[in-house]
Amino acid sequence: MTNRGFRFRAACASMAVAVFLPGASPLPGPVAAAAPRQQRGCGEFTIAVIPDTQNYVDYQHQKATGYPVDGAEMFFEQMRYIADHAKGAGGDIVFATHLGDVWQHYSLWMDPGHAERGFKGMPNSQSSEVAESPRKETRSFEIPTAIKGFRLLSGKLPFSVVPGNHDFDALWTDPEHPAQPEQRGRLKTGIRHLGGVAGFQSAFSDQSEFFKGQAWYVASHDGGADSAQVFTAGSCKFLHIGLQYQAPDESLAWAERVLYRFPGVPTIVTTHDYLDRAGEHDDNSNPDNSILDPRDNNPQMLWDKFISRHDQIFMVLSGHIGGQGYRAEPNLYGHAVHQIMADYQGRWQVAKDLGRKDAGATLGDGWLRLMTFHLDGDKPDVRVRTYSTHYGKFSTEMKDYAAWYKGHDGMSKLTDADYLRRDDFTIDLGDFRSRFGARAGGGNR
After folding, report:
1. pTM of the predicted model, to two decimals?
2. Pairing mode, strands 226-233 and 93-98
């Protein structure tokens, strides 16, 4: 996680659109949304957004290791809640998306693919053991626990899982950028690199028990590290594209082909690291953050090369950075793209309640996002709310919510009311019909 400023940024669609520089992307030109299609109606529906669950699934956060509660059970509570409120169970949740960092630990020192390409690693006494010590428990406990959790959703509704940085097989320090103990931030621990998705594929490949043969799982790339799903609400159809952390050019080219298959279908993109708490793109090319494989793309590159160039993408969801962030930004057609970040992995009131006083006891306290869409009325919008499956309450129903979390999230300067609005707010989708017609939907399989 990183420390950044704390403000929401909303760049209205009426703002001037930035000039796209020729040659900045290997991909073809921008794609406009197809002609609007009239639909009968979408009805009210909800998308469940599951932020980083790594601390619930962490093998060290279980009673068997001396932790006061089984973190895995809190993860299962979240999945049961979504399953119990799925459309097929009489609820209104039509789709669920996990924002990445499903589990905690790495399982290799370096993945074979990067070793074959000549990448080197070095010991690093300044780096945390969570980051660079591979653990056998990743494969023996954490990945099986993740699979067990998603089995609670299987068959209940369409869903997506994307690999976050902790879901890669390996993370190592680049010898050309070693630890600098005298520096601050990530330079203190050196510049580190990620690689390998074999562990992720063992749980969530396109051939997994969750996705193989599912009509709503419409495309995949890199063995399921990138994937696409369709879901319906009323008579309306939506497309979701999940992109792996720091998605490489090959992933973006694949995602563009998916959009060509579903022209005009309103599209949501999920990727693990994209927005920060200040509403800025979390630019991982900065040397104080992490180094990129030359094939990969940081968040600003994702915007420039892919998201801003395709008019049917109207929303981007991400996690990774503790707290909340929001940004509305015009794409190359002047239409707003709503970019939303939420990550509650650092919350540890539950651990405090059980007598743990150390910040290493963080769990997440059961918080997830519920986004309820209203597209049929005169003013299309989406209500974003934050709900704890542990406490059984929305953020606005918790009298101690700001007292518990405002300072922890680095937002002490905000009033309680302003802080609460970061977890309960409404997004105006005012240009939705000009892009997708009087109702959402359209496109072909």
Report:
1. 0.90
2. unpaired
